[in-house]
Each structure stands twice: as C-alpha cells, then as structure tokens.
Amino acid sequence: MKYEFGLVGLAVMGQNLARNIARHGFSIAVYNRTPQKTKDFVANYGDEGTIGGAMTPEELVHMLAKPRKIMFLVKAGQPVDDMIQAFLPYLEPGDTLIDGGNSYFADTRRRCKELEAKGFRYLGVGVSGGEEGALNGPSLMPGGTRASYEELAPIFTAIAAQVADGPCCSYVGDDGAGHYVKMVHNGIEYGDMQLISEAYFMMKELLGMSDDEIGDVFEQWNKGILDSYLIEITAKILHVKDKESGKPLVECILDKAGQKGTGKWTSQEGLDLGVPIPTIAEAVFARGMSAYKEERVEAAKVLRGPSATFDGDKKALIEAIHSALYASKICSYAQGFALIKAAAHEYGWTINFGDMALLWRGGCIIRAVFLEDIKRAFTNHPDLANLLLDPFFKEAIETHQDNWREAVIAAKRYGIPTPAFSSSLDYYDSYRRGVLPANMIQAQRDFFGAHTYQRVDKEGTFHTEWEQQ
C-alpha cells in the first residue's frame, strides 16, 4: 500500500502528532534517524491506525503516495537543512516538504525560495500546544503557497484543535508567514508567563499570601475575563506539594528560567521593524535577569530597597493586581498583532487577523477566552491600526486602568520588580499621547551630530548651530 503522509522525527512531539494523524484515519509512514526508535514506535502505537515504519529516507519516500507529503519535526536550524538534503535525491517535482519545528522565519523563506525553484513545494507550519496539543489537537499556523496548503488542509484541519468557530488551523500567508506568526505567538507567551509570575510575586512577597491562597485566587480569576490555559495551570501548580518535604513544589524550583530563543527572535524583529513591543522584550530580559542567580544572591546582601511593609487593603490590592494582569495582557497582544501587521507589510504577506486570532483560540499555550474578543475586533475592523483602538478594548482599559496604576505604584513603593506590568503601562501611556519628549532627543541629536530636525510650525528639514545661539 501507499501511505498518505510521511513524518520525520520521533521525539515526543513527532510521536504524538503521528498518533494524532493516524487516529483521524489518515495512513502515515514514519522515519527516525535511529532505526530502533522507528521500530519501537510502530510496535507501541501501530494499533492506533495505519502506521508504517521506514528505516531510510529513500524507503520512506517510496512508501508514500504521489504527490508526497513529508513533515519534519526536528530541531530548528542546520538539522532541517540536513534533513531536506537527505530526502531531496528521492523526491519528484510536486512533492511537498513541511517543517513543523520552531524554525526561524527567515530560514523558512529561504528554503521556500530554493525548493520551489526546483519544482518542489514547501510549507513552514507553526505548531503550538506542546505534547498534549500534538496528540489531542494543536494550533497549526501554516505558511507557504496556498496551493501547497490546500493539499494538506484535509489532514491539518482534522487534527487541529476544534473550537466553536471551527478548527484552529487556516492558511496564514506565503513562505515564512506561518513560522513568523508562531514566533510572535511565542513572544506573547513569554509576556503572558512573565505577567502571571509578577502577579504571583506581588501576592506572595507584598501580601504574604501562601501558595494555596494564591492558587485559590488564580482559580477564581480563571472563571472570568482571565480564563486561559496559563492561568489554569498556574492555579494547579500552586496547589502541588513536594512529596519529600511537603512544601509547595513551586518553592522548591530554582528561580532561573530557561528559554529557547523564540522570544529573543520576536524582540529582535520588533527592533528591526521599529515596532515597540516592550512587554514582550521585558519578559525576555526578565528571564535573562533570572539567570544571574549567583550575582543576585550576592547583590541581595548589599543592595537595599524600601523597608516599609504593606498595611493597606489586601482585597483591594488583589483586585488591582487582577486589573494590572488583564490590562497588561491586552497591551501585550496589541504589541504582538502590531508586529505581525508591520511584518505583513514588510514581507508582502496578506494575513487575516481575525482568522489568526482563531488559530490561538484552542490547542495552543496562549489560548484564552478573550481571543474571541480579538477576533471580533479584527472582524469588525480589518484595518485596525492597534488593538487598543477597538471600542471593546478601549473600554476595558478605561475600566481597569486606575487599579492597574495602583498595582504598579504599590510594586514600586515596596520594591517588587514588575518589568512587564510597568512596561505595559508605559506602552499604553505612550501610545495614548499625541506629544512625547522625542523633540528633546532630536534636539540633542542635532546639537552633537547635526542630524537635523523637523518643525511643528513649518515644512522642511532644519539644523541649528546650538552653541552660537
């Protein structure tokens, strides 16, 4: 027989995605560089559907129906290029290769161009949802030629997470658009996680609440406007106890956060395209600061902060932290969508932002109820310049901003670091002002470097000999 789909790479994500495909009735052939891993996978999961194992790239290609569809789930970077080269000698024009890893979008653009010039098709597909999502329904963000996507659509839409509005999968745009959107998704994920950690830290350090108490708060929050996967798992984490000591397990975890680079890529893109994304960037920097554990321990012995302790209304501050989390989250998503909008213009992509919000409504790590509000905003106003200008989100910020400010003020007064809360508020305050102090910066640039400036009262470009005035 000939199999409908091929999958390369049998780490946990690859295994779970292959099982998902097989469970939905599509025949699949799999390959891993380690033959024993392929044999074990077929032996363990072969009864979940029509699954075949290949011992070499050539064998996998010959097992597949034409035009062939082969998905790679391997480490980003050179391993993807190496795998492409391993398969190319056995492929024919019209065959499709799919990269389902966390590849850098520029690499995907390059590979699309190179392979399409040789008559092949190439898709860069962002896959979000982790191991559980891969098995039970991920969010899929496909980029490449539309014709390439249409051939894969029956499989992708079947295995994706399903929500009321449909599957969390639809065509994003040409070449690297899918991986770009996945990159920004991960950047927003960095922001979300940092914002949640700041809310947790304020309740713990400022209000002296126990982990169980904080977990109860997050459980309540998850029943309202903050309903999301990350809030849900945060509540669960806070209630888990270490089996050896009986302490909350989260308190046994070293405060050094890892990162794989997608948040950094997002921040770099913001700089390259001149799009301010401070919440996301500060979340990346916060992880960087956490890595300085030894230095921080030494600094804590000599650097002093405020000595006062909070003696105000505990319930009111919890409400303020809730508002700060919600309003900052809106700003983080506004920044992410603004970056994608700028990238679409820069790279020639046509992206439906309402559909894109739907991609993140289920399956992925940042899935949240309020993505429905984002979808509605872009459906009503496809050319919306910034999410903050949508009537729903404008009202939401107005409703919560007083509390938001109180939370940030309290954090600063008592020395609690909240880089994502603070930068989100600064983003909002900067965006809402028609006048910023950049006139002083431009005057300084003209003073020391003759960089010139424009005036508010007349057209043209001007330079002043400042020392002679």
Description:
- Homodimer.
- Residues 178-467 form the 6-phosphogluconate dehydrogenase C-terminal domain.
- This is 6-phosphogluconate dehydrogenase, decarboxylating.
- This protein is α/β, with parallel strands linked by helices.
- It has three domains: 5-175, Rossmann fold (3-Layer(aba) Sandwich); 182-431, N-(1-d-carboxylethyl)-l-norvaline Dehydrogenase, domain 2 (Orthogonal Bundle), CATH 1.10.1040.10; 438-468, 6-Phosphogluconate Dehydrogenase, domain 3 (Single alpha-helices involved in coiled-coils or other helix-helix interfaces), CATH 1.20.5.320.
- The protein is 55% helix and 8% strand.
- The strands form two sheets. It has a seven-stranded mixed beta sheet with strand order 3-2-1-4-5-6-7, with helices on both faces. Strands 8-9 form a two-stranded antiparallel sheet.
- The longest helix has 34 residues, at 314-347.
- The chain is globular, with a radius of gyration of 25 Å.
- The N and C termini lie far apart (86 Å).
- 45% of the residues are buried.
List keywords for this structure.
single chain; 469 residues; alpha/beta; Rossmann fold; N-(1-d-carboxylethyl)-l-norvaline Dehydrogenase, domain 2; Single alpha-helices involved in coiled-coils or other helix-helix interfaces; 7-stranded mixed β-sheet; two-stranded antiparallel ribbon; 9 strands
What's the CATH C level of the largest domain? Mainly Alpha
- Structure annotation, total helices: 19
CATH architecture of the largest domain: Orthogonal Bundle
From the N-terminal CA to the C-terminal CA, the straight-line distance is 86 Å
The succession of helices and strands, N to C, reads: EHEHEHEHEHEHEHEEHHHHHHHHHHHH
What is the averaged pLDDT score?
95
SS elements, strand count: 9
Secondary-structure-based class equals alpha/beta
Main pleated-sheet profile: 7 strands, mixed
Helix fraction? 55-70%
Q: The CATH topology of the largest domain, please?
A: N-(1-d-carboxylethyl)-l-norvaline Dehydrogenase, domain 2
Q: Superfamily at the CATH H level of the largest domain?
A: N-(1-d-carboxylethyl)-l-norvaline Dehydrogenase, domain 2
**Total of domains:** 3
Share in β-strands: 5-15%
Strand order of the largest sheet: 3-2-1-4-5-6-7
Low-confidence residue ranges: none
For the CA atoms, what is the radius of gyration?
Answer: 25 Å
Instruction: Report the principal-axis shape.
Output: globular
Organism: Veillonella magna
Pathway: Carbohydrate degradation; pentose phosphate pathway; D-ribulose 5-phosphate from D-glucose 6-phosphate (oxidative stage): step 3/3
GO molecular function: phosphogluconate dehydrogenase (decarboxylating) activity
Protein name: 6-phosphogluconate dehydrogenase, decarboxylating
